[in-house]
Amino acid sequence: MSDAHLDSEEGSLQITLSLGSGLLSKVDESYRDTSQTLAISEGITIDSVLNRLGLPSNMAVLVILNDALVQPSQFALQALTNGDRLSVMPPIHAG
Amino acid sequence: MKQLILDADKCTSCLQCELACSLEHEGLFAPAYSRIKVFEFEHGKRNIPYTCTQCDEAWCLHACPTNAIAINLELGTKYVIEDLCVGCKVCTLACPYGTINYNAKSGKVTKCNLCSGDPKCADACPTGAIVYADPQELTV
Amino acid sequence: MTWHGKVLIADLSANTVRTEPLNQAWADEYLGGRGLATRYLTEMMNPKADALSPENVLIFATGPMTGTMASTSGRYCVVTKGPLTNAIACSNSGGKFGAELKYAGYDLLICTGKAVKPVYLLIEDGNAQLMPADDLWGTTVWHTEEFLKEKHKDPQIKVASIGVAGEQGVKYACVVNDLHRAAGRSGVGAVMGSKHLKAVAVRGTVGVPCANPERVMAVTKETHQLLKDSDGRRELTEFGTNAMIDSMHAFGGLPTNNFLKMTFEGSKNINPEAMKTPNENGHTNLITNKACFGCTIACGRIAHIDKQHWSVRNRENYHHASGGLEYETAYAFGPVVGVDDIDALTFAGYLMNEHGMDPISFGVTLAAAMELYELGILTNEHTDGVPLNFGNAEALTIMAEKTGKQEGFGKELGLGSKLLCEKYGRPELAMVVKGQEFAGYDSRALQGMGLGYATSNRGACHLKHDVFAEDMADQSGDGKAVPCKNSQDQIAMIDSTGLCLFTTSAWDTDAFQRQIAAACGDDWTREKLLESGERTWNLERLFNLHAGLTAADDTLPPRLLETPAPEGVAKGKVCELDKMLPEYYSLRGWTDTGIPTQETLSRLSLNEHAV
Lengths: 95, 140, 611
Ligand code: SF4
Prior knowledge:
Largest interface: A-C, 25 and 40 residues
Number of helices of chain A: 2
Helix content of chain A: 10-25%
Bound molecules: iron/sulfur cluster
Largest sheet of chain C: 6 strands, mixed
Strand order of the largest sheet of chain C: 2-1-6-3-4-5
Oligomer: heterotrimer
Number of helices of chain C: 24
């Protein structure tokens, strides 16, 4: 992903993004941090953020937005707003 | 010539290689009889798979009084001719690496013969710690 | 058939060992491992007997798949009556000991009675003998293993042993094999100690026969491939089980400060990323990953402690590598006690392995003591002058060592949360079910987990059911009873094979069935396997009922049932056990007081075990 492309997706709003350690090797290099601030533009959905991170589209992830669990069916519908806290985590299974 | 290339950094000490070896050569799951051995050091920090290197100058072969160890020129292996082996163990003393061993069940010695060109350990290894290849053809 | 058909019985009271044929009829009903051992246990002891009395029976059980080339074939179970719970105990371990026991030619090792003086059991193929262990008594697990290999001049000997914790009856002492794998839970190590059995040392060269190698290998190849291709497996290999800690923190189900909180900011300091990031001294915690016997996953972590860290600065004997953090140890030395110092956590893990204790129960007991301390009920006078505040990393390592050596306040911590909290008049602060401490999931956020905890036959445990998918999908108690019951039966079956639960990231019941059928015969259909699992579950339940447990024991502490979740996705919720439990009993074919009905007993051929 080129920087220019990145810039075109950035916007004036900011969200806090937490990533699980298990996903760091799967996202694009520029996002390899467990906690970061992300500039987005109004109306961006969870789907497009996942896309921007470079996660494979069929990958199962656990998404939590401001302490609420988001079901995968909502990823394409749920828009983000300024100050949102978004967590993208590996799915949970026996451990 | 192809050989077993062993990479200790990749080995997890799962012993799939020993299982595959014992099944191939003894017909049962018994790592005690495996021709390849994995050694563990410091609580599992280092795990080192180890087997016969098929030395060019094979001391086991020279030591054998009954000529029971022969060379397969095509594979480069030194292999034991069971019918000729009398179980005197001189070869096990001659080998500097301890990779030819006496088998009390058969009364003969056993060593790696690369499964006659299709080594089962390499096939079983899940981590790529054992690869059967020609080192000269491997691009590093 | 991959059974040997042989059981080794060590009568410790009589100081004799003998071999008996395996009861094949039972093997046909219970498969092996957990199920078969449970059947032997019910036959050989009175469930009412005291867990630490000579009447208790201690069984080491392999499964029909143990020692084969199936992936994860290194498992064995320790089945006995647990002193922590006064219920059936069934602790599963990996490493290499289980396969070695099988290679010596035995399916099960059964230890009865109590030796007059400390002994260890030496097994070399068909030869088994009890040997004096006076010079080992009072020493650590690590010393014992090294000593026995040295003494018998065989580095290939595999050892399962106990430390001082097991000798002195710490309620959650475990049996440790291969230095850092453990049959961890319910105090099975204390049972071993009560029998004066310090160690079992085994060397096996008999192997495991394979009647149909072509078929076995074909299935093995196919199931290896399934694992290789699975995302869940890849995650376990790459990050270990601790990948879970970030998810549970974000989700708000990570028990923190004795379950007062459900998220832990410090988790970023002890997560898999922290494990592989160099610290200011350039020291990296994680060294490599390591497999148990036969395992193509290799989720185990090998780590080391920074030599300059305060905990080990002058203690060179802890500078070597050993077992590193997994999710449950990270939880038990981390969030639940509020500590986020990765070296302190790793050191606490070393101490657990060296002295033979269950990290989960130790951590949660310490968490209860910390809450009592913060409430002013415990003071420095009780705690040998160590301030037991949440978050005190030094308190963690000092108390881990004191408990392992049974010194000072460590003696009280060795009681477990339940007895400790009862002693100080606050029983409700013990985060336990049936006396056993919770694993790292809060059942207000994971409702199905709550039902599993409450109904697990060995007390609170996260490994006897798998309702994660349903618990992620919704945070109510609705629809949790069915997956809870079904997964309990499936896992009872898996624990009876000799294979590891973590393969379920790639294998469904049919994948297990194909492997078992190839190894043990085609009569092992999917139906028969699941029925066998259900039978095992019910027989465990019947053991507990005979031991005196009742439906009243299928419950959770008030903190989870009455105090609404303070944060996270389930904020405001309590565990809806009251809703799930009746549904669960009826699904199981039990009365509303949790007793298997006549019909259920007949269906599972369990009539002779009726209460
Ligand atoms: S199969 Fe490979 S990873 Fe496993 S022990 Fe052998 S060499 Fe090591």
